[in-house]
Please model this.
Amino acid sequence: MSWFPFVGLASIFSTLLASSPVFSSAKLLVIGSLIETGRRLFQWLVERFRFQYSMTAQFDEGDPSYEWVVHFLTQQKVWRRSREFRVSAKSSKRKWAIHPGYEDIGKDNADYVPTYELPQIFRWNGYWLEIKRTKGVGMPAMPQYGMQTFGGTIFVTIYSLNIGVLSDFVEEARRSYLEVSKPDVIIHMADTPHYNPGFTWTNVKRKVRRPLSSIILQEGVIQSLVQDAQEFLDTEDWYVQRGIPHRRGYLLHGPPGSGKSSTIYALAGELGLEIYSLSLASGFVDDSFLQRAASSVPKRSIFLIEDIDCAFSRDDPDSPLDMLTSIPGLPPQYVPNVRRSAVTLSGLLNVIDGVGSDEGKLFFATTNYIDRLDPALLRPGRIDRKIQYTLATQAQAAALFTRFFSENRSTSSNHSIVKTETSGKSSAVVVEKTVSLNGDSADDDASVIKRLSEIFASAIQPNEFTTAELQGYLLSCKKQPLQAVNGILAWIEQERIDRRERKEREEAKRRKAQERHDNFMKARYTPPPMVAPVPANAGGFVGVPVVGEMLGKKAENEREMSPTPAYEPKDAQSDKDRGATTGS
Model:
């Protein structure tokens, strides 16, 4: 009896197997299980193989090494077989794109950037490399900045256990990147907020490298700056041995358009450095953001803060804006919508003095008003050199003219040059002299340009115009040096008229702001009239307020309208009664 249940189960199982559909299903189940087991075993073996015989490096977008690797892989045509592209018009924003190879350069107006989604395998220096890229992850950010996207990541897998192979790969990518970047100045910018742990320089732009000779400054200024910066970069060991932080700070100050930013770009091109530029006026930049930005700037780079006075300047108390914002309790409709920087002076000083500031970085700051900066920022050790930029001198004007027309050959022989001279401070009085210059050689052309530059410079009052303004004028007659000389006085007169009109508009705006300020102050601080309650028996108006002199007048009028009988002694009233009786 004890074997009966097992015999019954065996008979049931044999009956089911005898059925063709059930038997087929069982075979499929066994085969599927074996296949899945084999797949997992193979995956396990592959993972162990890759773990033992390969290494993987991760490069995050926003870090300079990411740019090195993407450029190198593009040069190696790793993504040449890609079938998905993002097409965008060419601009100053740098993109590592695939070039179709047009023979006609006029057709090359777009960038074809692969999406880099599919893994790619290629061979480099005898080693197999596998490249895989992941997209950035988007998430909602502040409404004014739209969608916040975390940068993508590139994974480079090298089938070798030698760490030196990875180091050689990164160094070769870096050298190739620096070589292709020589004609340009690379500018990294952070123009959107970031909430991910790693800081990202989201915007990378390029500017054509500008020769130092194109920067028209006072004699010796640009050469001294380049020499100082180069010496700083070459003496890292000297700083370390003496325990001095390896950092250098420069402040370029002067009027707008005098060449401060152009100097920094030219210096970066000359020394082969990249610029990391940050604006403190952005609404999302605070002390924490500034600290992360400065810490992420790589070694041997320029960290640039333009218009540093906009963050925590000493405001002009006479400006129309400060007249309004200084009033306590001013209604919102009177206050302009002005956004102040969230960066504090202590936050900036901590960044300059911080741990990441002594890694061979050049710190540059520009300002139009040096007197608005706190002395704590200007002390040695934070700002090591202060370079003042002024309005154009006559020597600078002549150098700028020569720079514009030095290779121009339109001033051939037998030209008549009009020399314009000014009498006193006014350029309205003009003495004309005709000077004939004849010649056929290049030396004669150079002498003509030199003579024209002297005449051009003599018409300009020193420290009246910026080099940018003079350059703007010369651009209007870039191939006509004679026209530039003959039209300079008319241009100067028109510029002076425009300046007077702008000054009058500013004065009118200032007067209007002062008037609004005075009217508001008068309305706000006029003492209120005296208020007193009316007595309860004065006309029956209990608690009615009466103002100033009206209280006395109203009480007097009420007494006249309802007179009260005069008080008389009792004896006097009896005498009247007796007199009336006697008279009768």
About this structure: The chain has five domains: 23-52, 54-180, 182-390, 394-497, 531-558. The radius of gyration is 42 Å.
